[in-house]
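User: Assemble these into one structure.

Assistant: Restating your components, then the assembled model:
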Amino acid sequence: MEQYESVLKRLEKTAKEYTNIAPENGQFLSILIRSIHAQNVLEIGTSNGYSAIWIAEALKETGGKLTTLEFDPTRAAEAEAHLQETGLNNIVDVRIGNALDEIPKCDAIFDLVFLDAEKNEYRRYLELAMPNIRTGGLIVADDTVTMRDEMPDYIEFVFNTPQLHSVDVPLDDGIILSYKTGM
Ligand SMILES: C[S@@+](CC[C@H](N)C(=O)[O-])C[C@H]1O[C@@H](n2cnc3c(N)ncnc32)[C@H](O)[C@@H]1O
């Protein structure tokens, strides 16, 4: 077993406490990142770095970088420690701050954005990130079945904006996968 796999396995024991994604959602993100050969990924909501490890391991193959945003400094420090343990820390920039302030400061053009912080802010996160998502870029939003009633504005936006093609993916707590067109 590789080092990152043993760290993931250990973190899965505390997944509820840290509200981490399910392993299958990690695998889904990993497949998407490898498929589109992503160079820049933005994650909103780092927690202790579980999903960041899945994302960074895929980005190791594509030669890309992850920027991940977390406003709780204790969790961000835990994420840094776990990334260091896997040797993936040089691929990941963990930024401490409110995503609503940090997203506009990002100057990279993102191939994929993963939303996993406050559900009632998903639409604001996406609207802030939209100018920095490339045509053909992907947006993955987590918890879209179990917490759907907390994100009516996001649901309305991703299914009714002509620039986005969106689909519900019934993995674990639910994912909405959106594709940004050039329109
Ligand atoms: C569901 S957890 C993220 C889990 C992580 N993606 C994983 O699967 O390992 C959500 C995290 O978002 C953080 N968060 C919530 N609102 C935020 C905001 N406005 N800016 C930055 N981080 C935020 C919380 O502190 C929490 O650690």
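The helical segments are 3-12, 23-35, 50-62, 73-86, 99-102, 122-129, 152-160.
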